[in-house]
Amino acid sequence: MTTSIVGSSIGTGIFGLSNDLAKAAAPGPALIAWLIVGTGTFCLVASLNNLGQKQSESGIFGYAGKCFGPMGEFMSGWTYWISGWMGNVAYAMILMSAIGFFMPELRGMGNFLKSVSSIFILWFLSFLVNRGIKSASFINAIVTCAKVIPLTLFIVVMAVSFKAGILTADLWGKVNGRTISGTYQSTSVFKQISSSLMVMVWAFYGLEGGFSFCRTGPN
Fold first, then answer.
1. Closest to 124 measured CA to CA, from 134, 107, 139, 141
2. Which of 44, 67, 158, 173 meets the CB 3.0–4.6 Å disulfide criterion with 26?
3. Is there a domain that residue 67 lies in?
4. How confident is the prediction along the chain (219 residues), in pLDDT tens digits per residue?
5. Can you tell me the distance from the alpha carbon of 89 to that of 92, in angstroms, rounded to the nearest whole number?
6. Are 218 and 1 in contact (CB under 8 A)?
7. If 0-12 CB within 10 Å is exposed, 13-18 middle and 19+ buried, where does residue 201 land?
8. Is 68 among the domain residues?
9. Which residues pair with 178 in a beta bridge?
10. Is residue 83 in a domain?
11. CA-to-CA distance for 164 and 216, rounded, in angstroms?
12. What Gene Ontology cellular-component terms does the record carry (predicted)?
């Protein structure tokens, strides 16, 4: 259960987060965006925790059903399911891109072949789940370790090599009153923050599912 929650919370967006943020905003706006997203995520977790204490037998769909009736529960379930399979497709495509980084011969593979390969991966994962929760949990534990170990190493390396002068050299995304061409979308701090928020929210996708899984268990 722990590895399932960690895996769904980390997702895959976090591995491309630094690259996407570097294109979206300078360090200053990005830090402000982190503060906003962190506050919002804390409020989400606090709300789910409050709901879980009051309705411990309900899952993420049951909360909507308690408040808005069967229609609310139906819409909540189906929209969450749609977001779930769309997220799985995105994960599979990111996986193919990652494999292409280590196997250059696959970089030129067309979108059709990437889509077919992604479908095969998703069906393989579905096969593991259908075999039983133990097989799926074992694979998930391996995948979670593959996520956590490089992230831990990255944090250690960055802590050792961190240079404050580089971080503050262009804190607000302006060089001679202009934005660096091709790096930040706008000289406006507000627009840089908005672009960063879109990137960061993706990294927290799955947090609510992990919390619901913790409350209801792998039924």
1. 139
2. 173
3. no
4. 666 666 666 665 666 677 778 888 888 888 999 899 889 888 888 887 787 777 766 667 777 888 888 898 888 888 878 877 777 777 777 777 777 777 776 666 666 777 777 788 778 878 877 877 677 777 778 878 887 888 889 889 989 998 888 878 878 877 544 444 445 545 688 888 888 887 787 767 666 655 555 555 544
5. 5
6. yes
7. middle
8. no
9. 175
10. no
11. 44
12. plasma membrane
Query: Whole-prediction pTM value?
Result: 0.67
Total domain count, the chain: 1
How far apart are alpha carbons 204 and 194 in whole angstroms?
16
Quote the tokens at residue 16: 């491309």
Tokens 């997203």 belong to which residue?
A: 37
CB of 210 closer than 8 Å to CB of 9: yes
Contact predicate 203/193, CB 8 Å: no
What are 130's two structure tokens? 């259908």
Tokens representing residue 56 in the block: 């411990």
Tell me if 84 is assigned to some domain: no
Query: How far is it, in rounded angstroms, from Cα 199 to Cα 25?
Result: 10
d(CA 134, CA 8): 17
Handedness of CA 165, 171, 177, 179 (dihedral sign): positive
How far apart, in Å, do the first and last CA atoms of the chain sit?
A: 12
Domain that holds residue 38: 2-60+89-216
Retrieve residue 87's tokens: 């997220």
